Amino acid sequence: MTISHRRHILRRNLVAAELDAILVTDLVNVRYLAGFTGSNAALLIRADDETPVLVTDGRYRTQAARQAPDARVVIERACAPCLMREAARTGIGRLGFESHVMTVDTYAALDKLRQGTELVRAPGMVEALREIKDAGEIALLRLACEAADAALADLVEAGGLRPGRTEKEVRIDLEARMLDHGADGVSFETIVATGANSAIPHHRPTDAVLAAGDFVKIDFGALVGGYHSDMTRTFVLSPVAQWQRDIYELVATSQRAGREALIPGTSLAAVDAASRQVIADAGYAENFSHGLGHGVGLQIHEAPGIGAAAAGTLLAGSVVTVEPGVYLPGRGGVRIEDTLVVGSDKTPTPELLTRFPKELAIL
Prior knowledge:
Blueprint: H1 3-16, E1 21-24, H2 27-34, E2 41-46, E3 53-56, H3 61-67, E4 72-75, H4 79-89, E5 94-97, H5 104-111, E6 118-121, H6 125-130, H7 135-157, H8 167-180, E7 185-186, E8 191-194, E9 215-220, E10 222-224, E11 227-228, E12 231-236, H9 242-260, H10 268-281, E13 293-295, E14 302-306, E15 319-322, E16 325-328, E17 332-335, E18 338-341, E19 351-352, E20 361-362
Parallel strand pairs: 1-5, 3-4, 5-6, 12-20
Antiparallel strand pairs: 1-2, 2-3, 7-10, 8-9, 9-12, 10-11, 13-14, 15-18, 16-17, 18-19
């Protein structure tokens, strides 16, 4: 799907929503709809006009012309007010705006400029399009996952997970290896958690030293072409205890159940339940303290959210994580996470993008 086709679908949705245009101020959505990656921009897309209007400031004049050649580019620092005046000047009646990201102060400034234009809340309209990934997006997600897979394989092969190293040292090492394998950057601050720290779901790496008998949990991702990967693997530094084997196998079984539930049309809450019930039946319900997964794309966390209270159903072509965990305070924890592409009715088996092995690795 080309960027212009994304806008075509959006214009069709504008008509269905009885909107004459939409003012896009979220920079991720601007990138999705125009290809522009600057730090200051807004976009106006009309239901009756194929040419979007992109406003940015003078720093990005050349970049905007290169990245968004099919847009009419206007150079002005106050991007949203500029497009509000454009909407009023050209007689737009009902103008949707991204109420979920716009500040109160920005809305107040636009309200003073709207003249006969009505400002209509349109939260999540672009995000709904982003939920289903096109072939180009999936290709970039594959590359991001491949870079992460290769980096972790290198780290393990080089003995990078060994007693005596600190969590921070492992993080720095792994992130450098992702860059070596073609990543533009990291998806988020890498989580490396050893020993009792592995029981903290989003632990930040410290000077804690890896020790024999520790769980080592690593949650990380690579960024390629603006698209993120997300993967978690948990290792044990020899010797391994039976309780560690038991908890690891429980999480692995739960994760497998969650992956198998990724069938288009399944409710998001049911996907979560398929994985969560495995852990609950083993008596560890209180030790699985977060949702099962989330969408991945231009943002590391995007629609859909997969959790017990999630509304909606799984859509073919969406890219999601499955990441159950069991966390035992003071002892250690296990999380196993993959990024997958949800299949279609014809090919319902999801495509696994993160391919690093999931068998318990005792190092």
